[in-house]
Amino acid sequence: MRVKSFLPFAPPAIGEEEIEEVVDSLHSDWITTGPKVQQFQQAFAEYLGSPGALALNSCTAGLHTALATLGIGHGDEVITTPMTFAASVNVIEHVGATPVLADVEPDTLNIDPARVEPAITPRTRALLIVHYSGHPANLAALRDLAYRHGLAMVEDAAHALPARYRGELIGASSTPTAFSFYATKNMTTAEGGMLTGDPEFIERARMISLHGMNRDAWKRYGQGGNWFYEVVFPGFKYNMTDIQAAMGIHQLQKLEQFQRRRQQIVQAYTAAFAGEDTLETPTVRPDVEHAWHLYVLRLRHAALTISREQFIEELGQRNIGTSVHFIPIHLHPYYRDKYGYRPGDFPVAYEHYQRMLSLPLHPRMSEEDVADVIDAVLDVTRHYHR
Ligand SMILES: *Cc1c(COP(=O)(O)O)cnc(C)c1O
User: Fold this and answer.
1) Which of 98, 155, 200, 247 has the fewest Cβ atoms nearer than 10 Å?
2) Which residue is closest in CA terms to ligand 1's atom 5?
3) Cα separations in angstroms, 112 against 81, 129, 168, 316, 365
4) Residues 147-166: pLDDT tens digits?
5) What is the CA(293)–ligand 1 centre distance, in A?
6) CATH 3.90.1150.10 domain position(s) in the chain
């Protein structure tokens, strides 16, 4: 049993390279959006094969900017999943549109295309797709629906770096796609995000993300710059700083190495848990490559005498940090009260929420840490087997 210190759920993996690059930014005159942001944006687009990329200060900013750039607003409906972080849905409210939830598939917990179709109305403008835990959503069916109904698509890829759907990297298409570099994500810039998509879309998004000015600071304050600009949209203040990009440049170089470690940990978890009648391990469909942002274990209550809350408590007592992803959107007071949702309105999301927990999964975990998590989980299941 783990008698050492508490094992945190997802600490960042920052090395000396990131620290030196940040210090280099601080010694330079570019502390806000400058050459390192340009370099990071370009490296990120090249890595994914994205047609265009825009570095921003969060994934939330990327999603908000994407909806605003598509011209989605009052009177419009956007269909999305209840099984996500609130940011994916808050941005729909931010542009004044109405979020419409469609329940998830029981295996991947991604939005279910069969539930999307009946949710489409004459007001529907877009589908906002989340690649839950890093497993790509069923894009073939969703793209087909979007095409047949003339809807835009926006992808929330906060978990899906790097992930592939039928061989294609998420973020390589012309669909607006937002990534997160929040501290717990697969790579981090402390806070940060990237919006990828078609170059013309990205150019308009760049303007909207920075006050709606038709010239950014990089062009105004660099050599040969000119003071003149015009505001053509009441835009946002969502630009990334060179200090953030300094971290991103090195995190991106380490991403493949981080992912290999994540995969090893996932293999060890699944090998240990797959035969347990108390546990359900994550699904991976044959046509995807999973980014493994999260390892979501589901409890089988028929074989256990304790609740998910007690299970988490027991793991905490064994020094293992866990989390739950996510409290479904329709249970949050704002959405529940505004739209009159009841827990059973999205029965798949609700049922799976009550039995899920996310195990520690990050590249800094040692073999011993992985063994400690496995031992703790199996110990709890043995103690409380029905
Ligand atoms: C983390 C997360 C976000 C928000 O990312 P930020 O960079 O913190 O804005 C959005 N959607 C999902 C699914 C997330 O997990």
Assistant:
1) 200
2) 59
3) 8, 10, 20, 33, 33
4) 999 999 999 999 999 999 99
5) 12
6) 255-383
